Amino acid sequence: MKMIRERIKYVVRRLDPLWAGSTFPGGALAIAQGHRTAAKHHPRRIAIFGGSFDPIHNGHLSAARAADRRFNFDELHFIPASRPPHKLKQHLAPFPHRFAMVSLACTEHPHFVPSLAEAGEDFSGTQLHYSVDTVRYFRHVYHGDRLFFIIGADAFLDIPMWKEYETLLTLCDFIIANRPGIRPEALRLVIPPDVIARPDAKKETEPPSQVVAQLHKTTIYLLENVSSDVSATDVRRQAHKGQSIHGLVSARVEEYILKQGLYRDLR
User: Cis omega before residue 55 (within 30°)?
Assistant: First the structure.
């Protein structure tokens, strides 16, 4: 574990000038940015995609690629969650392992960025972080750029239970990766009516079927046809049983799981 943590420190010091001496409230909410691509947009389009990523699998990558094809991001940041507030009782693989797997999964995509935004000052990922605070940090770092928050439909339906969720909906655009069986009307019902703009208040170029709601400051987009049969639970279970996980995760993540012996002892 110490070796992994030291490797993370080395990578971040080498690649991320924002990491050193971060004075933003909340400690070192640093981002391992890799390299920034040349700006294609003014403002740039920055996406954040958070999750337990225990492990990151091909379903996550498929949704990210679909969102990228549609919105043409300049950077897409994958944020392994520290201690997800809704999964406090769930045992997660140590943060350094989850970050390492995210880093490996991002290597084949030039503007996919593994993020340490929720790693904490000691890189243990044991501190509690909330999405609204993470988004505020990204707004601080990427001031003037356009932020997108990628989220699954099931998670969005639970968003009223998130900290300051009404504020969160006003801080950035949302991209909901939908799955069969969830209607846009159901997604719209969890949005507070007072943050929804009047029908004539804001015009979007997107077809109406691809927009869940226009808010006063932001837009909630719908991303269809990105459902996947892959789940992190299945990956962990098959790895625990010694069964093949080929095709469920990227080749580099598969190799990492096997070499590190992850998920052999499930709790």
Answer: yes
229: exposed, middle or buried (Cβ count in 10 Å: 0-12, 13-18, 19+): exposed
Q: What is the CA radius of gyration of the chain?
A: 18
DSSP state of 59: H
Return d(Cα 15, Cα 32) in angstroms, integer: 7
What is the Cα–Cα distance from 50 to 149, expressed in whole angstroms? 8
Residue type, 232: A
Amino acid at 263: Y
Q: Which of 34-43, 81-90, 155-164, 248-257 has the lowest mean pLDDT?
A: 34-43
CA distance 219 to 228: 25
- Each residue of 1-27: pLDDT tens digit? 555 555 555 544 443 433 333 333 333
Q: What is the pLDDT of residues 49-72, one digit of tens each?
A: 999 999 999 999 999 999 999 999
Q: Are 39 and 72 in contact (CB under 8 A)?
A: no
Amino acid present at 123: F
Q: The pTM is what? A: 0.84
Q: What CATH superfamily classification does 2-229 receive? A: HUPs (3.40.50.620)
> What are residue 215's DSSP bridge partners?
196
